[in-house]
Amino acid sequence: xxxxxxxxxxxxxxxxxxxxxxxxxxxxxxxxxxxxxxxxxxxxxxxxxxxxxxxxxxxxxxxxxxxxxxxxxxxxxxxxxxxxxxxxxxxxxxxxxxxxxxxxxxxxxxxxxxxxxxxxxxxxxxxxxxxxxxxxxxxxxxxxxxxxxxxxxxxxxxxxxxxxxxxxxxxxxxxxxxxxxxxxxxxxxxxxxxxxxxxxxxxxxxxxxxxxxxxxxxxxxxxxxxxxxxxxxxxxxxxxxxxxxxxxxxxxxxxxxxxxxxxxxxxxxxxxxxxxxxxxxxxxxxxxxxxxxxxxxxxxxxxxxxxxxxxxxxxxxxxxxxx
Amino acid sequence: xxxxxxxxxxxxxxxxxxxxxxxxxxxxxxxxxxxxxxxxxxxxxxxxxxxxxxxxxxxxxxxxxxxxxxxxxxxxxxxxxxxxxxxxxxxxxxxxxxxxxxxxxxxxxxxxxxxxxxxxxxxxxxxxxxxxxxxxxxxxxxxxxxxxxxxxxxxxxxxxxxxxxxxxxxxxxxxxxxxxxxxxxxxxxxxxxxxxxxxxxxxxxxxxxxxxxxxxxxxxxxxxxxxxxxxxxxxxxxxxxxxxxxxxxxxxxxxxxxxxxxxxxxxxxxxxxxxxxxxxxxxxxxxxxxxxxxxxxxxxxxxxxxxxxxxxxxxxxxxxxxx
Lengths: 323, 323
Hints:
Keywords (chains A, B): ATP-binding, Kinase, Nucleotide-binding, Transferase
CATH superfamily of the largest domain in chain A: ATPase, nucleotide binding domain
CATH architecture of the largest domain in chain A: 2-Layer Sandwich
Shape of chain A: globular
Protein name (chains A, B): Glucokinase
Order of helices and strands of chain A: EEEHHEEEEHEHEEEHHHHEHHEH
CATH topology of the largest domain in chain A: Nucleotidyltransferase, domain 5
EC number (chains A, B): 2.7.1.2
Largest sheet of chain A: 5 strands, mixed
Number of helices of chain A: 11
Helix content of chain A: 25-40%
Oligomer: homodimer
CATH class of the largest domain in chain A: Alpha Beta
GO molecular function, one term (chains A, B): glucokinase activity
InterPro entries (chains A, B): ATPase_NBD, ROK, ROK_cs, ROK_glcA
């Protein structure tokens, strides 16, 4: 009897796979390199081959699985199970993904956007504790996210729901965003955004600071450098972190004033700054959230790390469990 | 066989009633005054008496009705069907509403917050055209709203979902809000908010303007006066409307960047300014919305006027239709 879920997290560098129990425990996991050569035409066959190989390896058959779920970059068509415009995979044209995997592996398949899938993972067995109302914000090179409201992942009319990184936090005089707008959250609250803020704030800062010295010397400064300096009481670095967390506190408060989720979960590479980051975002969040929201919506750190993708992907396959 | 819905819109001045078909057409409607004397203890008995009287009048019995739905001010407990802290009804303590009406009338009863209920009405048979993703923003003395995402009214963890009026649009130097925060949308984008903006902007405006003259003379100026002057090309009034619609465009864009609804529907008394208001909100919305959202989320005017409450309330009762 089918008792397992297979989750796939498709990224530009690796494809991660996980075999999970129906309650979200990872039993096995592995990864393969993503071969993006020749317009990414090897990706789907490589995934099929790797699934077949690992099912053999573990002595499993298709009958052991309720379904396969996948998170993918690009524009995902959930009905057709196709992906378009995933440029980090060299997939500019529409790719048949689900139909090929279902035909080759013989297990029902579901697919969604990678940020949405990570949100589902954190909501299911991570910081979201399976609550029906959870918002996930991921701070990496950019800012992504996913919104789960009343138990449903919110896609909106055209699938652009959850574009947390493009909430406008500086309507006047904001930085240019890759999306064509100015002042998006992503321009200031990502790994690149905090460095952008540092350069801007260095122009008017007059005290002594190793971070400011590095910037003035044209040396490379990272998000990690800035957080470490702030924790070591570099007052310039602290003022940058304060501005960074102001933007996140404002955006998470406004999301919460609209949705009153149980929690806003912060993940992604920048969230490695941990409680130092979380508590400062929370300070600003409390200033900008409606009183009843302030008392009931929590700011949390993500708990699943890189596994959020395979776990959330597996959760997509739960839809195939027969009632 | 039960083929009708009864919708009740409970307000501080009147209680409105409507008998609707299952597809949302209003067949009969009437209203009674809200008697808020003696801690509002007459309100529920008056509602019961009015329902009984009108059922007799129309030759209907409880068996003709699938259910009764009600929208109420205050904090609504949907499970217990009670209302707490509805100060415009003199209901400070928790009131038994649903249990009394169900016992007296014998029809299943559902209740929700009045702004949410109006959102459901506009979504069902109004501007929302029964789309699964619709946000309703009501511009009156304050700013309220409701969020319907993936077909569900979003309450959030503590029922504070949809607090559109408390989205922060001026994080620095905003006006004081009744909620205790500063810079909430309601402080600038309501009937009182636009007058507040007018006073602030009058201080630095140097041209000739009848509106500015009225403000400087200490005369009463209303939202309607400002919109009428702007439409008559008073450039001071136009600059106020521009600021007012900037805030609404920013807030509706950020809501839409999070949820990508089919439409954001603008209602309430201030929306009487019509297309002049809508098109200017839309101009700012387009500037601040993510490209895919800009192409797919529409800014619309509400269509149901005062009937949104009884229609949305009736829609709550649809849950009692047997499959």
